[in-house]
């Protein structure tokens, strides 16, 4: 039994029951450990939650940051980032569900440690939008607001998207990109 196995199981338990509804016993049961044995690997639910949030953000920062660093026009970067982000959400539903819905359960100390990494992820999006403004590809008054609006639209997708649904995550990403880049006006 590895720490990664425990984190994987905890993400699934947190997704199913929520952070506050999940118990250390439920996590231990999910990995076939005695509760006391679980504490040899992790100290608390807070530690597990912070580790899961770190894991999710490191994965996303590496992947989305890699797209953002490509020598592409900013609108093409944004399209690829939207597609990559939604695919990451869909491919890792337990982990990303914890990231999007359980971060509010962090205690004050853990929250303070989490915020810089969250801000670094948001900065990747803002940087691409700012690049687009500088190169006159985008006409945005507030790139921070635009980045948060974009993140809100994409993050909410996790609540309704179904793998077996009418549209693939790639189709949804392409439609979001068209909507964000072209708007609604004719």
CATH class: Mainly Alpha
Instruction: Report helical residue fraction.
Output: over 70%
Under the CATH scheme, which architecture would be assigned?
Orthogonal Bundle
Tell me the name of the CATH homologous superfamily: Tetracycline Repressor, domain 2
For the sheet with most strands, the description reads:
none
Question: What is the terminal separation in angstroms?
Answer: 57 Å
Task: Give the helices and strands as they follow along the chain.
Answer: HHHHHHHHH
**Tally of helical segments:** 9
- Rg over CA atoms: 18 Å
Average residue-wise pLDDT: 95
CATH topology: Tetracycline Repressor, domain 2
Q: What key phrases describe this protein's structure?
A:
186 residues, mainly alpha, Tetracycline Repressor, domain 2, 9 helices, elongated
What does this entry look like structurally?
The chain has a single domain, classed as Tetracycline Repressor, domain 2 (Orthogonal Bundle). Helix content is 73%, strand content 0%. The N and C termini lie far apart (57 Å). It is mainly alpha-helical. The radius of gyration is 18 Å and the shape is elongated. It is built from 9 helices and no strands. α5 (74-91) packs antiparallel against α7 (108-134) and α5 (74-91) runs parallel beside α8.
């Amino acid at each position: 039994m590895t720490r990664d196995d425990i984190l994987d199981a905890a993400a699934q338990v947190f997704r199913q029951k929520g952070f506050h509804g999940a118990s250390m016993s439920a996590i231990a049961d999910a990995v076939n450990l005695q509760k006391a044995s679980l504490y040899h690997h992790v100290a608390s639910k807070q530690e597990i939650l912070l580790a899961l949030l770190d894991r999710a953000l490191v994965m996303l920062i590496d992947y989305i940051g890699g797209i953002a660093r490509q020598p592409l026009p900013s609108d093409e970067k944004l399209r690829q980032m939207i597609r990559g982000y939604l695919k990451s959400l869909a491919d890792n539903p337990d982990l990303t569900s914890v990231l999007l819905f359980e971060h509010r359960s962090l205690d004050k100390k853990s929250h303070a440690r989490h915020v810089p990494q969250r801000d670094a992820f948001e900065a990747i999006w803002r940087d691409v939008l700012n690049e687009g403004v500088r190169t006159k590809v985008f006409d945005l008054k507030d790139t921070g607001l635009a980045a948060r609006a974009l993140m809100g639209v994409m993050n909410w997708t996790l609540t309704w998207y179904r793998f077996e649904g009418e549209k693939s995550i790639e189709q949804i990403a392409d439609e979001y990109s068209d909507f964000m880049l072209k708007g609604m006006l004719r």
